[in-house]
Amino acid sequence: MSTIRFVMIGGFLGAGKTTSIARLARMYQQRGHKVGIVTNDQATDLVDTHTLREQGFNVGEVPGACFCCNFNELTATVDRISAGERPDVILTEPVGSCTDLVATVIRPLQSLFESKFSIAPYGVILKPSHGLRILSGQEKAGFSPKAEYIFRKQIEEADFILLNRIDELPSATVEELTQLLETQFPGRPVIQVSARTGAGFDELCEFLDQSGMFGRRVIELDYDVYAEGEAELGWLNSSLTVAADDLFALDSLLVGIIDRLRDRLEALGAETAHLKTIGMADEGHGVANLVSSFTPAELSLASDCETKSAHVIVNARVAMDPAELEREVEAAVTDAAASVGATAKFQQTQSFRPGRPVPTHRLVQLGL
């Protein structure tokens, strides 16, 4: 039996991993390949999982911890996806605040499951909004030195780097970012892409098809700094229903939630790593998100529908106390619902700071 191609695409919170994974999945399907996707989060109710499932993909989720700390659940999830129809390709999206994935995910797969998986080159997506500030050494890069440490370590272990959102960036900025990456992280090819338009994705697929000495960059990592950097982020996943007597525009609700939350967090001086919300109704589904405090909210997937009821999930990753973040989210959602003549009813909210990473395996050299 042939091996399953295992593709993992990393990158910081808000880098564009989900949009990239969805586009890659469609491209593999167009080649005639069967595709499975595995998402990952520190909690349940992940917007990304619902977004990909709403697009018709076969998706498994590893909740409750990152891939590295829940390695056995990663492989079990792949088995569950494979139970019906064995995929040719598994696309995986790790938690956006995680690093050290070569030593804790790729090498254990190479060592323990060599006959089951062939491992593609490991790519990390650069988030331009924070990336330019961090790589150019600006004083207000948006995060603390400990969070910046994680950002840089993610890039350091990559086989190649994806410079995303080139459709939104001035050509001079694309060139500046490319030069900064090539100077600070030599030896890693930089592929310029737009997950939104598909620019550069043919080159990306060609790169992912390669075999060779990949997954070899095991980084030196201070797990104390790593844990403290992750713990600076308040983490929230919230599930709710929004209902009204009359029809309301689902997209207006979603953008309204993100806009109001952005304004409230900015007033508090809380730096946003990523905000994302999905609304699902019988008439359609939409997604709105915000990738930093200094960029506008965007409707990344339009539903173009009106409805009287929607199931809404909000994911927020913000540098602030989780309890305070929960209050701000509830206030923003309630206000946004009222603005379209609706009311919001919260079913479940999880808010916390990520715990210290404790990998299942960490292989500096191949072989246990």
Features:
6-stranded antiparallel beta sheet; 11 helices; 14 strands; globular; alpha/beta; 27% strand; 368 residues; 8-stranded parallel beta sheet
Instruction: Give average pLDDT, whole number.
Output: 95
How is the main sheet built? 8 strands, parallel
Low-pLDDT segments, ≥5 res: none
* Alpha-beta classification: alpha/beta
Helix-strand sequence: EHEHEHEHEEHHEHEHHEHEEEEHE
The end-to-end span amounts to: 25 Å
- Compute the CA-based radius of gyration: 20 Å
Please tell me what the overall shape is.
globular
Overview of this structure, please?
With 368 residues, this protein is an alpha/beta fold. Helix content is 36%, strand content 27%. The chain has eleven helices and 14 strands. The strands form two sheets. Strands 1, 2, 3, 4, 5, 6, 7 and 8 form an eight-stranded parallel β-sheet that branches. A six-stranded antiparallel β-sheet has the order 12-11-10-13-9-14, with helices on both faces. The chain is globular. The two termini are 25 Å apart. The mean pLDDT is 95.
Write the layout of secondary structure elements.
Blueprint: E1 4-11, H1 17-30, E2 35-40, H2 47-54, E3 58-62, H3 71-82, E4 89-93, H4 101-112, E5 117-119, E6 123-126, H5 128-135, H6 145-156, E7 160-163, H7 171-184, E8 190-192, H8 201-208, H9 223-231, E9 234-249, H10 250-268, E10 272-281, E11 284-290, E12 298-301, E13 306-318, H11 322-339, E14 343-352
Parallel strand pairs: 1-4, 1-5, 1-6, 2-3, 2-4, 6-7, 7-8
Antiparallel strand pairs: 9-13, 9-14, 10-11, 10-13, 11-12
TL;DR?
With 368 residues, the chain is of the alpha/beta class. It has helices at 17-30, 47-54, 71-82, 101-112, 128-135, 145-156, 171-184, 201-208, 223-231, 250-268, 322-339; strands at residues 4-11, 35-40, 58-62, 89-93, 117-119, 123-126, 160-163, 190-192, 234-249, 272-281, 284-290, 298-301, 306-318, 343-352. The two termini are 25 Å apart.
